[in-house]
Amino acid sequence: KNRLIIAVDGPSGSGKSSVCRAVATQFGADYLDTGAMYRAATWYCLDQQVDLDDEDAVAVAVEELPLNISTDPEHQIICVDQTDVTEAIREPRISEAVSEVATNRKARQLLINAQRRIIDESGFIVAEGRDITTVVAPDAQVRVLLTASAEARLRRRGLQLEAASGAAETQEALRRQVLERDKKDSKASNFTEAADGVAVLDSSDLTFEETVNSLITRIDDVR
Ligand code: C5P
């Protein structure tokens, strides 16, 4: 079977989710947002009132996590048990706590295994996160690190939050949030430097379309 895996890593606000969804839609491929899995795991821990500082308790919760994630790039739905958490996992309380789960070694390994199963089941998938090019699917045919300057990422995050809630979060609070999460995340995986064989795609000065097209060109090259 002719399997195709597209692995994209990058920091928050690099635009990788929208870019990857658009690219997957374009090719009729599956799409996997691994960040959403860490977020859903975090939602579940909070829902179950698991103490996030208790490493073993978090690992147990993630082991029994009844996660259901769709791989349709146009209908991203993520459920924990019967609860649709698609919206809830984007709340600030989740963003603030998610690094705690992502740096839990056992929880991380469980989620990586689940990600590999989803990728293995697909014939053509665009998977994005922080460690897809290096850990989850280092054998991917296309491996890209999507970066953007801190300013560009803050600008996009600001727009995203505005679009989501109309919240009047100050630029300064946003800046602190984004940089703080980068710092915490970098403890779980190094996504600021490209590993061997991973191409860097810097989107700071690219439009959304230009970024999407650049990734499409790379995929066309290996198809
Ligand atoms: O991509 P997103 O910002 O939704 O990811 C949420 C969090 O999940 C990240 O801040 C990071 O802590 C964690 N994550 C990870 N490894 C991945 C994807 C996400 O540690 N492959």
TrEMBL record:
EC number assigned by the record: 2.7.4.25
Domain Cytidylate kinase span(s) in chain numbering: 6-219
Residues noted as binding ATP in the record, renumbered to the chain: G10, P11, S12, G13, S14, G15, K16, S17, S18
UniProt subcellular location: Cytoplasm
Key words of the record: ATP-binding, Cytoplasm, Kinase, Nucleotide-binding, Transferase
SUPFAM superfamilies according to UniProt: P-loop containing nucleoside triphosphate hydrolases
InterPro entries reported in the protein's UniProt record: Cytidylate_kin (IPR003136), Cytidylate_kinase_dom (IPR011994), P-loop_NTPase (IPR027417)
Molecular function GO labels: kinase activity
Catalysed transformations (reactions): dCMP + ATP = dCDP + ADP; CMP + ATP = CDP + ADP
NCBIfam families for the chain: cmk
Similarity field: Belongs to the cytidylate kinase family. Type 1 subfamily.
The name this protein goes by in its record: Cytidylate kinase
Species of the source: Nesterenkonia flava
Lineage: Bacteria, Bacillati, Actinomycetota, Actinomycetes, Micrococcales
